[in-house]
Protein 1
Amino acid sequence: MYLSALRSWKRHLWRVWVRRTIGWFPSAGTGAASGVPETTSEDLDGQSQATVNQRPLGCSVPPPGLPTSLTPAALPQQLLKDFLAGVAPAPPLSWLFLFSAIQLACLLQLDPSLGLMEKIKELLPDWGGQHHQLQGLLAAAVFASCLWGALIFTLHVALRLLLSHHGWLLEPHGAMSSPTKTWLALVRIFSGRQPRLFSFQRALPRQPVPSAQETVRKYLESVRPVLGDDAFDRAVALANDFLRLQAPRLQLYLQLKSWCASNYVSDWWEEFVYLRSRGSLINSTYYMMQDFLYVTPTPLQAARAGNAVHTLLLYRHLLNRQEIAPTLLMGMRPLCSAQYERMFNTTRIPGVEKDYLRHLQDSRHVAVFHRGRFFRVGTHSSNGLLSPRALEQQFQDILDDPSPACPLEEHLAALTAAPRSMWAQVRESVKTHAATALEAVEGAAFFVSLDSEPGGLTREDPAASLDAYAHILLTGRGHDRWFDKSFTLIVFSNGKLGLSVEHSWADCPVSGHLWEFTLATECFQLGYATDGHCKGHPDPTLPQPQRLQWDLPEQNPPIHLSGPEGSRDLVRNIDCHVFPFSHFGKSFIKCCRVSSDSFIQLVLQLAHFRDRGQFCLTYESAMTRLFLEGRTETVRSCTREACQFVRAMDNKKKTDQQCLALFRVAVDKHQALLKAAMSGQGIDRHLFALYIMSRLLHVQAPFLTQVQSQQWLLSTSQIPVQQTHLFDVQNYPDYVSSGGGFGPATDHGYGISYIFMGEDAINFHISSKKSSTETDSHRLGQHIENALLDVASLFQVGQHFKRQFMGLGENSGYRYGIISCKSVDPNIPTSSSNL
């Protein structure tokens, strides 16, 4: 799988080095770490990033024949975006201020240039005495521009040096030293007053390459708890041979690559983990329950779709104008915004050996699927973006359309869930016979699926309804999602929403930012009329949605043979379980003075050990967006300290005080690993890059081969809530989101994601495969619930939770909290009532 890819990298490496060395930069915010222009392309990460051998990440070089996205009409807009990002964090008007200051000094007969402006005048053409004043203005403008550029360069260098400091990560939680306070103050000063989304891209440091000796040492430490003595001795021997024989050469070449590319690992990660994977995209897609758990703003499907699509396009407008504020840690440390660039107008184009990301600068329609039929819905008129009511009208027309699906059309989207090589071959036939329809889908801003069934939490059976909700969001029915699109908006018949996201273009925090904005804006700001419709009035002059025609020959063998059967098997094999844990949440964990993420990770270790009776390699996703074009790193949560704590919890001879002491030691270890991963000192991305380099150089490295062959039986990720200011969970606790999830990384593994819903609840999403005799999502869910209560009982303030739970018994109504499926007017938020 890797050899053909690595041959292409030989051809690209020189071009990458030249472009980076001579100062050429892709547009601010692009993910084109390989150094090619973004003309065709750009923490729920545990699943698809967990298995290198199953899901290979991305050079953005397009294949011949793919249309480019940077049209002449879009070039001025792109140049403006590049200019604004290039001068940031300095505002463009600062040049005018500097020029005015120089002119004022000249009026006062002062020469701030120390004679340089006179030298510039001598170089200008001699236009005669009547143009002497014009020559002076031009000389002052040239000098101001040079001085302005030098100041911006100095600002970028100073800011990059400041952002390269990671000592603040190592400080204890809640404590901040004087040097860190000084550092934060300087970052604030050099960051400017109102930074844009891509303002910090050219000031972000590059991700460092750790030392091979330190990475290997950390690796051996991480596998010691899960390997027997003989297996560990073999691993040590292979590691020693690697450090002595292959590591020096591979490390040298990796250092050279880190100087040429924006990020030494992210481009390879995108290509080999995602774009070169030949399996179904169902294996790497993740979902978001893009809705409130206990409240439905309107039961009208078309109205909910109208508001949601309008809000998503509002977000795209803000994104294009860079008016989205960059994400800041601690309110000051910026994160890389590169992944935002390909959020909209992006499609993953299948290839026989490798897929490509095709990104368009703009798209003024969405593709809609309903009852086996495809439609093209325009989103703009001559006056701009259509109103929510106009979009609702379009979607209602689709719902009311009685026409049946054409032959082969109903299950056509199942091809996007087929193995990629098969879909690449069949797509050529589809493109030949239905090029217009295919372009309408692939060129859409995003994909919309109007589901014919209801979704979400129900009163009658809350447990089963949530599980079904998660399952349909993750897999669909195998033929009602265009998995190639960057994301699919799912609107259920009862007004519930969901999001299905293709993983190669970005990780969960980026799509999660979009999801939070959409959820808050379409409900609280746009709102709905009292009858449930979008606000406003229908437009009788609006054209009907365009029904797409797929003139596919019924006798075409590839299309018939690639039907929905394969995707149906994948869909049936996924076991999803979702449960809100409402006994306690983040506020209790804060009272225990413990990191909330470390608390949950140790709970998961305890629950998994009780479920399987053994420890396993555990994947926890951590972001590396502190660096330019950083994506993720692995935190290996199954540590020696965690194993000691887990064994103590099931040892009746150990007291609560002893278990608590071991728990705190394990938490400290986990926090150290998390901070190391975030600061670029993780293990797995470095080992992955060394492995790819070894294949590129045809170097045999048995140690690296063994590392990449290991499987993650437990893949975990926390879904961060980034825009808490958009929600008022204290006054309106029903208006909380329920997060999202992903599939298992291996046939006998689990995929677990979790989100803190407000301060007093945690929602867990668990997945596994029904074909496995070793896993059971519901069984693990019960173990997680018991483990949460057992760990909480170690703390004096939490001992009452377990007594309370034992007194209530298996009361599913209590477990699933306050359940309400009523429709409400979000302009007047109302708490839901108990059952």
Protein 2
Amino acid sequence: MRQIVLSSGWRLRQYDPSREFTAQIDDEEGWIPATVPGVVHQDLIAAGLLPDPFDGLNEYAAQWVGEVAWLYRCDFDAPDNSAPDETVVLCCDGLDTFATVWLNDAPVLTNDNMFVPRRAEVTRLIRRGRNRLMMLFDSALRRGRAREAEDGVLPVWNGDSSRLYVRKAQYHYGWDWGPTLLTAGPWRPVRLEFFTARIADVSCPVEVDPDLHHATVAVQVEIEAGQHTARNTGEMMRFFAGLTVQVELIDPDGAPVATAALPVEGGSSATRLHVPAPRLWWPNGYGDHPLYRLVTTLHDSNGALDRRELRIGLRRLRLVQAPLDHEPGTTFLFEVNNIPIFCGGANWIPADSFVTRITPEMYRGWCQQAAAANMVMLRVWGGGIYEDDTFYDACDELGLLVWQDFMFACGIYPAPGWFRDSVRAEAEAQVRRLRHHPCLALWCGNNEDYQIAAATGRYDPNLTPEENADRFPARLIYERLLPDICAVLDPTRPYWPGSPYGGADGSDQTFGDRHTWDVWHGRVAPYQEYVAYHGRFVSEFGMQAFPDRATIEAFAPPAERYPQSRTLDHHNKAADGPRRLAVYLSDNVRIPSDLDGYIYATQLVQAEALAMAIRSWRRRWGGPGRYATAGALVWQLNDCWPVISWSLIDYYRRAKPALYAVRRALAPIAPGLARTADSAELWVVNGTTAAADVDVELRTWTLGGDLVVLDKLRVSLLPNRTTELGQFGFDPGSALIFDARVIMNDQVVARASLWPEPLKYLTLPDPVIVLDLASDDELHIRAARPAKGVVLLAGDGVAWSDNYLDLMPGDEQVIRADGLGERPLSVRWLGME
């Protein structure tokens, strides 16, 4: 098969419904250059016709773009060497969203789903020489509102309610962390394919035996014949009989493992490839992530017609829901290669409002930051997009498990026949595209739709989806349509109806997954109470913080660079976001008035909150029969624009201090501390698969740096569980700091500290911090007195091995700082004047 990618020669103009269509096409005035793949906003910005909506308050000035229709035009030359028996297909891998496409003035396809790739056979329409491709994109907002006016308004959280009727990225309508920017355009590649026969699909589910000694790859290849190959069934069968499929599995070192030559029967071929002693794919932190290559080649008597290559991983994955020994309910844990995995990680949203700007290098960079933070899982949230192949490739390579939502979020979606048909096409296309990735751990029906249904009195778990369809119609999608598709197309991977899902309202702490928003949302509970809001798997929780000052300077003019300015409030999309942020500041720290101080204070609160949550819940990883909490996914890893949000890494990939706090809380070996009325509780999590003999030191300090008590313990840590080390008494009337260190082979491998709270009541003496540069990329840091929240700052381009530190006397820490060189270095800590 040959293909031509139509990536150049595109132009764009606004469609005028008052003018005759062909007149607008032929009029050479008014067109601007267009980028494909791309969306309208990008090209308007590049042409100087739209101010950057990320700057200041410019989002308001961009709303008209989503309210009108747009024309795309591409004049291109077709190859003059096509064979007479070749079929030509126009492939539009993604059209956003309501589109009609013409080739040489003939309509060839229409689209109303952003997530469905479209194919149109155009053999008789293609001309030798010059051809013209036209696309008209109607306003998704207008079309959605027309559907809503006909069928009724349904409840939503976030965005215009008409979004429920449109199969488009829902965050485009605005969210509590993102702007309202309703895009349009060919957002995925546009191609021409030339073939007599092609490989239409390759299915390759992997099964690893329970003893892990043998793996099987069940390969199913679907073949599509061109339009000129046969005029009837008999001719078609004879054509297929002349084809063969060569299948080869190649190991990570490039050596062939198994091969097969297969006949094509009725348009398909199938075989089972056997792999003795498979090299297993492991999640991040548990082992290597080797990838095999599955190469499929279609032949006729003259040679190769088409080729498809997939990278796959051999691993055994299960979602285990089993009774617990000490609590009611069941586990919700992922087991990979027979090892239960505590899935610490984060939620992933689209990394840009205009996703066609995201490069493969950018995807990989975010994933590398997640992996370096000891994350095991990323959840692709259901209000965005099914991500680009390069995102899943990076997760495969780095060992990051992916919880994959289908694209439904925070609404009561309709489910008439036409809508279910569109969802079926979407789901089938995306499951076929992604199912070979070893990173993919779970298909999930939606984000928070059961929760909004319960909140509006529409969900009755005692009724079947059919019985509940009048109030909660999309249950037919989440509990019938999607699981059926997954069972047929991806039978080895688990499906889960929604997130959260469990109990009558999705907040059950004994079953399924839970979104813990009692902190921040809900009753705005103190983050110190995270310990009470556990669940079997906490798939969302978070705390807001300001981004780096350089990020704020990128969108806020100088006069607006102060806390609570109009521009900064606009770039906090959460309902009551600035007010809720102020509550957590007021409860915990002294509120600064300057921008740098405010940034630091919000980032400190975020880091403390997330570390407390993860340590509290990971403590419940108690071993076989006691895996009471099996996952904690921070909301959210990233941003889609420069914004004040819950992200750990901002739009420009600048890490907030919380990323380092999360990294330490998810470390393979991590101590934890909690305060009771008159004692400190101490535990250590061993997240590795091997037992470890360690020394644990618990030191008690005054604020001025006097050592009050030193406790030393020799401890055997059992693998893959928490070891409780007991309670240590103290005078509750004293302001004391507890400092735990885990030591292996005379090296400190993990630290944790517990400070008196609230921190705002502490008057801290100068800690006398000393920095020594051992080399251009290594520094040693120490303090004479306890120092809280020490942040090292050196601008962009420095990769810190650790940051946001708590320093104790006599405990020098060594920090790698790749890229530091001779950059100016500054330090900030809690209480710094």
Protein 3
Amino acid sequence: MSPALPEQPAVLALGRPRLLAGLDRAARLDRSAHLSAHGSLPQHTEAQLTALAEAVALRGRGGAGFPFARKLQAVGRAAQRRGARPAVVVNGCEGDPTSRKDAVLLARAPHLVLDGALLTAAALGAGSVVVGVTRAAAEASVREALAERGLAGGRRALSVRARVVRLPERLVSGESSALLRAADGGLPLPPGRHDRASREGLGGAPTLLSNAETFAQLALAARLGAEGYAATGAPGQPGTLLLTVSGAVPEPQVVEVPGGVPLAYVLKVCGAGPGPQGVLTGGCHGAWLDAATAARARVSHGGLADCGGVLGVGAVLALPADTCPLGETVRAAHWLAAESAGQCGPCRSGLPALAGALADVAAGAGQGALERVREAAGAVRGRGACGHPDGAARFVLSALSAFTDDLAAHVLHGGCGRPTAGVLPLPSAAGPDAPADGGGPPGPRRVERLAVDWTLCEGHGLCAGLLPQLVRIGPDGYPSLADAGVPDHLRGRAQRAVRRCPALALRLDKEGRH
């Protein structure tokens, strides 16, 4: 079992590798090694590329699963209608802590992603390509790949200008409107408007934005053709998929699998034991499946959806039998609340209320607390400035459906008797690229956590008003603290809450973590 995911997990291919071709021989494929592994890239017109994307049923691999052909058509029509040159944006931010597939592609096979992006740009007549990343290794690799193509420093080649944008490593950075806003020089936060990027995206131009794996898949399809691409996989999910498999396995891995493969087979090959009590599909915005459902699920958009699962970011986490599933979900719910942009009511107030109500259920507060969970989830869905509240609500509600025996034990008997092992790979507050105290190279991370001196606390509640993402007022009128470190983006609020506590009962504790 490996609670923390390395930035570059081991890779494995079930069958002949496509996306991972060549990575068994090199840590990173430079331009020459990339062409040796994949061959030259044929060019396509917009109509040809659209027909190819339709023929191979290419859908986004970053979460929503939107058909790529429809994006192409929408951007092409908008550009023609407005007489404007469109843009292409690669979303490689991958803010979900359970996924590393895009990190592997960008750090080790960046030219395959760039092939798909530049192919799309040429077909649409786009003037710019932007690659959004959050990790240092991905940024360095993509910059090096652009230099190998003569596109370093924003130089223009073949009428296209390309650049890399680095965003903070947060869940919200992977939200499409946050990436577009950051690429235009603004804050890496959703702007609160629901404009389609295909109509008005980067710099106000029609923009085709998709995930890094999606562009890599497009580059493969262009080389293989529709028939060759569909030579593996299932009728509704041709080709291969990248999964990040973690949890109750010997080590986390990024695995390339044929579309439609049984989920149970993937877990077995990755070394999962025979009895996980459930499987998380699609990451922290995904859904839990109970063991019996996971045993019959197949890895595809439709196959997982039919079982109540989500392909999402391609994350698969097997939950071992010796941890409390409700406790694991509470940890993640608190983290999701703290990761919000805090710009709208559903995020700022609704997600902390959802996490708090679920924590009450886990603590044995009974049927009333369970009803508050359902009410809080219903209150945030469809009302956020982005999809974060919807994803968090789906994640929490899926746990109630998947772990009914454990839920009954907490509601009726006050608990299940198992500890919460912390299997979900939630990041520390400092982040993986954070330096050691005092600067210099990365070292042991210093995680700050809120703590209360209960001999001083008088229940004023000011801390909950200042920091609702991490503090709420419990049924007894006293503060209840989230079981999560204080993220960088909330540190200022946390310090302000500590300073303004009338009883001087609140403090920030530091603990070293390796």
Protein 4
Amino acid sequence: MASRINSFCKNPDHITLLLSSLRETPIFNKGLSHEISQYGSCLRVGAFTSTTSYFSKYKTSNSDDRSVDPTLKAHTELVSWFIQHGGTIDKAVRITQDDLRGVHMQVKADLPDSIPRETRVINTPISVSMSWYNAIGYECSKGSFSKHGVDFPRQWIDEIGPEETFAFFLMGQYLRGAESFWYPYLRTLPQPGQLTTPLFFGEEDVDWIQGTGIPEASVERIKVWDQKYDDAITKLEGFGFLDCGEFTWELYMWAATIITSRAFSPKVLSGAVEADDLWEDRVSALLPLIDLPNHRPMAKVEWRAGEEDIGLLVLEELSPGHEISNNYGPRNNEQLLVNYGFCLTNNPTDYRIVHLGVKADSPLGQAKTRQLELFPELAKNVEDHYYIFNPFYPLLAPETSMEHSIFSPALFNALTVMESNARERDMLEITDTGIQITPAYGNGHSIYAALAQISFEMIAHAYNLKASAQDLAPQPTTLNQTHAQIYRNGQISLDYAALIVATWTITRGREHKRGETWEDNKVLLSELMARVPAGLLSDEVLSRTRVRILERPSLIAKNGELFRLGELFNLLPVEMQEPAQTCFQHILGIASQEVPPVASDPQTLFATVICLLAATYNSPQARSKLPPRLTKWVSFLLEKYSLAAVCSEEASQPLRMFQEYADAEKPGALAPGDGVDWLAEGSGWLEPNWLQWAWTVAGAEMVMIPLQSLEILNMEGEPSMLKQACLYVPQE
């Protein structure tokens, strides 16, 4: 990266972005950061002066005609060139321009009828496409691609690869100006100095993306491009290529951005390229005019490749005056901003990418390592697909669960592995399609724990986004700022909606008395939604979140699986509940005086109750009276947690002190006359080894859930992140 710092100084936008992302690191104190940002500001004059002159030298003779917008005029001339070389545009289509959508395509407003589906609105000849195949002068029995005056050494092309070759080929065509075959097309593209992705944000815009993941992603992209550019230009100079100095870093950034934002998959060239030469993962193509339509999520279009041309077909009826849109795929706003320089308000395919930071020696890290050992072909798939979707996200399989409709299966399964206990990890399932805890009795613990953990993350993420925007102006003043604000607000809204979904499942886990019918759930959900602070989310988002909760089944089939300490006694028969609770309170009162840490240690408190429940189970006369749920659960715990194995574990200080005290006083002395007369001799009640066993169970089966997770969103200042300890007791 250091090799590019001096070059950044030629373009202050680059250094501003880089430094703004580094200001948060310890090496930049306030004084140094201020001096450098001011230095970058002084260098704004003359940015891109080395490249903007090329097209300015070749203005048309009518460029001073103010009756036609020059941008629209350039596109009109592009259409003439396009048709001259065999391209066609449907007679029902026109190219127009307005302030909202810029230059775009639409169905002519004066048509009597809609255009039907399967209409081929544009037909682009392969001869006017631009790609790596042009750079190498590719020829085969199916077609040929001309270099059009830019000829690089073939050995250099082979050494740097198709991606960098294409970027340099585009630069070479740009440098040819009006002599380039593609000049009518290139002059309609955003020019150097006009790009709007965050890499080119000015100093006044960069503050609007602080606190988001955009600066980090942009700097990472600069690092990658920096290395690729250095390697390519150094090798090109080594071949003695003339005019290497004109292939500047600034121009490379422009070319790489144009390709990233406008190029199509090489599948569009399949009609003219032999199958063995179609490098789908490394080659892309620029297609004049087909790249003109704006993006609309879920627009029904198709790019149809032929032997001599590529057609853009609309697969839906479009009425007169309707804009003809393209579909870039299910892009979220971060991808749209980073790659294309814009965002969409209420983008239905928006989602947030979550970075878990998996350590190699963690359970998930070890599982991923094992997965690669079993399925080495997965090594080429570097993306983890850890996403939080917005509640409008449309691309879901019918069988997708409610939780997976908001938290991508890869993310949710990864979280359950990270938050699982040892017995759940014994049921880890590793396949070529994923890593997950096998659904089974008792494995809901990891689901609740995962939802609790992601809730804390979303609360913190939303707070940080809001806090980082506190010093911004009330309203954006540039288009870049507007898109940055849309992105930021969308991320916050996404966090809030997903938090409602997580809170819903956890709330059901805390609901022990209400029924589980459709009407019961509707009432419970209404109570939950009433807790959402007013104005936090739009009515549309709230309504859609409600629908998402009710329309899909939860991963948790039953309510009432999370218990606070006092609620555990309700698992006993009614006649045993009061004596058991009185016994516990008596023990707690005595022990707290002698061993104060016991009263504040939830694991030890839960362990004491678990020890009592296990002792009841171990007493034959009492066991016959226990309800099936409690009998099955204690039996399950005794099977999964070996008494002999856990007694070798080191206990906490409160438990050790409690064990010593209990052992010295004897159970009878601790609880005289409490009415717990059903415990048989040898049941394990308050014996050190059983207390140790119960303490291990409590630690593994506890879940720390957020307290007042929705109400906290409306509080002033940093969220308190209050937690509540609950014990997971599965339903049958």
